[in-house]
Amino acid sequence: MGGYQLFVILFTMSIPFAGALKRSGGVSEAISRQLKSVTLKPVKRVSFKFDPFHERVVETRYFMHYITAPKVLKTNLTCSFKTEIQCDRTDPSITFKLVNGEEIVFKSANLTALEMCKLFNKHISVLAPEETVVAAPITAKASKKVTPVKKK
């Protein structure tokens, strides 16, 4: 056997591939996937409280930006948002007042924006009522007989 043929045989007998076929899109891709399933239907009011000079407020502000995107806002047009700026070094928090009267508070000092999106989907988006699809009845035009065209 020649040296080239031996070289080809050695490289074709390699270990089979194991692992992910492609890399993940990163944090921004994960956040966009979570935002696709966010719905504000069970929420009446969202209230953000934070000190802008607090060292852990950046992720809360990112979450506020994501949750107030026009695509998310279209899921519930009656939901109101309130931002309370405090200058007393308190930890940031987000309060969700639900339609059924409950109140859910996220203490967001040690959470990332992705974790807040996941928690929102886990605890709040599941409370949204299921959408029912109603089939349209058959109209008169669809039930007419088709007459064949006569050839001359």
Automatic annotation (TrEMBL):
Keyword set includes Ribosomal protein: yes
KW Ribosomal protein (keyword) present: yes
Highest taxon, organism lineage: Eukaryota
Keywords: Mitochondrion, Ribonucleoprotein, Ribosomal protein, Signal, Transit peptide
Compartments (UniProt record): Mitochondrion
Signal peptide per UniProt: 1-20
Gene3D superfamilies (alphabetical): Glutaredoxin
InterPro entries: mtLSU_mL53 (IPR052473), Ribosomal_mL53 (IPR019716)
Gene Ontology cellular component list: mitochondrial large ribosomal subunit
UniProt record similarity statement: Belongs to the mitochondrion-specific ribosomal protein mL53 family.
Name the UniProt record assigns to this protein: Large ribosomal subunit protein mL53
